[in-house]
Amino acid sequence: MTHDRPATAPQPEHERAERILDAARELLMAWGYKRVTVDEIARRARIGKGTVYLHWKTKEQLFTALLRRELRQHVHTVATGIERDPDAARPSRVAREVFAEQARAPIHRAMLAGDDELLGALAVSGTGLPVIRELGFGELLARLVEIWRAHGLLTEALPAADQVFIIDMALHGAVTGGVVTGLDNSDYPTEHRADLLAHTIRTALEPAGPPNPARLRAAAQAVLTALEDARHTLDAPGLHAANR
Amino acid sequence: MTHDRPATAPQPEHERAERILDAARELLMAWGYKRVTVDEIARRARIGKGTVYLHWKTKEQLFTALLRRELRQHVHTVATGIERDPDAARPSRVAREVFAEQARAPIHRAMLAGDDELLGALAVSGTGLPVIRELGFGELLARLVEIWRAHGLLTEALPAADQVFIIDMALHGAVTGGVVTGLDNSDYPTEHRADLLAHTIRTALEPAGPPNPARLRAAAQAVLTALEDARHTLDAPGLHAANR
DNA sequence: CAGTTGACCAGATTTGAAATTTGGTCAATC
DNA sequence: GATTGACCAAATTTCAAATCTGGTCAACTG
Questions:
Q1: What's the superkingdom here (chains A, B) (predicted)?
Q2: In chain B, pLDDT over 70 holds for what percent of residues?
Q3: Domain spanning B13-57: CATH 1.10.10.60
């Protein structure tokens, strides 16, 4: 190789991987997994098809990497909110933010809802699990619950597993809508639904009254660490190393 | 006609309609809407196919009548529970019972979840609404919420519409399961999930502390009336009168 | 003749084989 | 050494023929 490339310089390979993912993202939202072809992705990225396979072994791995990136960015958004205001680290606030983000981002919603139309074969992974679960969402939620409990942001009246279940249930219900709630019911704004989700989780799981500011800050710190770890876990293998 | 048939005598037509619905029910659970043929229903009911069309104009109307009957029986179950114990009229208890019933009865679950596999074309009605909604489930829930509020079984801190949304959201989430919750997760018993749903609705929507016994009894009475009305509404047109 | 039936039909669905598309590879090229 | 696109096997789509099924109604029954 021509001298060692300084680590600080932008790695062209990584940049290219991002470009490919950008192209895949556009096409995914426009056409859905099934109808997107690797050829078309390569064309959009102004690259030969073979080059795509220099980055990922299969189409599925490429898109998994994309979903990881989406989730990673979302985790970053949540983390930023918490850095700005520790109160955003409370369970109800985090759930609210996840819901709100889902309403904005079609891909994120598809992951949470297991949308077969958009994700196609990706909706359930090879092991039969929903992608979102495969991506470690469950583990992250479980860890957050432990942190929240340790810092008094969740009651200890209920076992942690039950609290995970309730958060999961409420979030899923809010995302996929119910019997009465039409998903197209646009006169019931997203923000309002998000508030109701937050209200539900707060009253069902959080201790009464506002949290102690000092404990809240400590909790926020721990949550940020957990999110940072999750982001690290989500660092998608996108280069040669992962191949073969 | 040969004399007027006394109204007290069992009407063979009605009995026959029930037999047809029984046959349809068995087949629906075994094969799903799409694969059940009217021929097979007639055979099971030991009746000519033409006779089926003496009762309902179309296959879809036949199955809608079946779903109505299912729902009617379920409403009856809930009502019986309330007659036995007025406490069962509380929002959290009703939600719990609906969830528990859904776990037992495949058809009921399919209606709540909008299961395309089992209900096929029936999952969403002609107007694009989930069947369950078409059957007046939404209206019933809205009416119950009003009753609960009037009798102090629900806070007035939240608008009624919001409470409907939350109940709907929680119920739907519990039924369809979330990201973490595998639907096959058999080591998380139905009864326990039902308890968690009840807990969520109780803490999120009901006033703190046990309800005043006198008011509870009055509320139970009003709820029973509403259920009775719903049952009446659900009386499926199953005879000639509805034809043409 | 009122009530019931199943042969019948048009339209929907399924089948299956040929034609096309697409994920993935690798020899040729830069 | 990195990149590419022609190439291939396998998957998917097409499309017409074959089959099935919802719904009707003339015939039949008691």
A1: Bacteria
A2: 88
A3: yes
Are B168 and A182 within 8 A, CB to CB?
A: no
DSSP A211: P
Residue showing tokens 């209200």? A199
Return the exposure string of A131-163: e unless at least 16 CB atoms fall within 10 Å of the residue's CB, then b: bbbbbbbbebbebbbbbbbebbbbeeebeeebb
pTM above 0.85, yes or no: yes
Per-residue pLDDT tens digits for B183-198: 666 678 999 999 999 9
Chain B 118-177, residues with CB within 8 Å of chain A CB atoms? 129-130, 132-133, 137-138, 141-142, 158, 162, 164-166, 168-174, 176-177
Which of B133, B166, B181 is facing A179, going by the closest CB pair? B133
- Surface-to-core class of residue B200, CB atoms within 10 Å of its CB (0-12 exposed, 13-18 middle, 19+ buried): buried
- Domain residue limits, chain A: 13-57, 73-233
pLDDT at residue A196 above 90? yes
Residue A127 pLDDT: 65
State the nearest residue by CA to the C1' of C24. A58
Instruction: Measure B43 CA to nearest chain A CA, in Å.
Output: 35
Nucleotide of closest approach to B57 (CA, C1'): D23
Q: Is B169 close to A204, i.e. CB distance below 8 A?
A: no
Residues A221-236 have a mean pLDDT of: 93
Helix (H/G/I), strand (E/B), else coil: A50: helix
Q: Which residue of B has its CA nearest to A173?
A: B173
What whole-number distance in Å separates Cα of residue B244 and Cα of residue B239? 11
